[in-house]
């Protein structure tokens, strides 16, 4: 028997075009797909939602962002559109949209079930099969991006043969597994809720030559890849490399990677947080994430300070101008009281 969430996702898929017209209104239908800029409903054509079943078994309602490699179902779209921070809110909104009745009460002693692919449980199993990042291809990949200061407590691991499910955009006959850098996605309590995978090419120590070398699984909404314990002053950004670039010059500042603009906008705020620096990417998704975060933070009494890169993102800055120039650029953007403490 399918789970209530799976049934809601299936029903949304059956009504995929109506869902897209409601929650991705800046897009348009093109053949069997709905095209839009990203999951935040920005104009463009990077994200495509399948509107009908495909010949190879692809289900309607599944989406892929060709720019970021993110993918998911229409529950993710609704969560991003409504700015939800809890999965329960998303299910309630989806049920309202579909005019579905409330779900029946769960049995008191449900039978154990196998963890489905993409669940937090499967993410934890993958994480348990990893090795330390040090002296691995994962470390070589980061060093190649000028990220050389990697602390032992960082939530980064390495998997030598991580399965890659090919998409319709991949060339046929590709290898089924690649080495991968694995990042743990956790909630505020430190519980692993998902993992992010960056598949790597052992020949070049760069991203693997596949259509989507970055993918995440698990419950991502509200959670992220955390560097340092939560505090009154923190920084948040989209990509892992963005956050690691900032940590090269501000290692004392706790930071969180949301992994995408939509998930950055939905991160859960720690109770003690008073000031949040947002390391935005210089693109429409970065603009949307900053706007949503600022609105949510203001309602919680949290000050938001944007950090602006010079070369698209902060890893671009680090690689182009180096640590000293990056630190100088950040110094002018920090609150004066933070400059001496953080730089």
Q: What are the SSEs and their pairings?
A:
Elements: H1 4-14, H2 16-23, E1 28-30, E2 33-36, E3 47-50, E4 63-65, E5 71-72, H3 74-82, H4 87-98, H5 120-128, E6 131-132, H6 137-143, E7 156-163, E8 177-186, E9 192-201, E10 206-207, E11 214-218, E12 225-227, E13 233-237, H7 240-247, E14 255-257, H8 261-265, E15 275-279, H9 284-299, E16 303-307, H10 314-331, H11 336-342
Helix pairs in contact: 1-4, 2-3, 3-4, 7-10
Can you characterise this structure?
- It comes from Sphingopyxis macrogoltabida (Sphingomonas macrogoltabidus).
- Pfam families: DUF7146, Toprim_3.
- InterPro entries: DUF7146, TOPRIM_DnaG/twinkle, TOPRIM_dom.
- Residues 119-227 form the DUF7146 domain.
- Residues 100-110 have a biased composition (Pro residues).
- The chain is of the alpha+beta class and 343 residues long.
- It folds into three domains: 4-98, DNA Primase, Chain A, CATH 3.90.580; 120-184 and 192-217, no CATH class; 225-342, Dna Topoisomerase Vi A Subunit, Chain: A, domain 2 (3-Layer(aba) Sandwich).
- The chain has helices at residues 4-14, 16-23, 74-82, 87-98, 120-128, 137-143, 240-247, 261-265, 284-299, 314-331, 336-342; strands at 28-30, 33-36, 47-50, 63-65, 71-72, 131-132, 156-163, 177-186, 192-201, 206-207, 214-218, 225-227, 233-237, 255-257, 275-279, 303-307.
- The strands form three sheets. Strands 6, 7, 8, 9, 10 and 11 form a six-stranded antiparallel beta sheet that branches. It has a five-stranded antiparallel beta sheet with strand order 1-2-3-4-5.
- A hairpin with a 4-residue loop joins strand 9 (192-201) and strand 10.
- Helix 1 (4-14) packs across helix 4 and helix 7 runs parallel beside helix 10.
- The longest helix has 18 residues, at 314-331.
- The radius of gyration is 20 Å and the shape is globular.
- The termini are far apart.
- The mean pLDDT is 90.
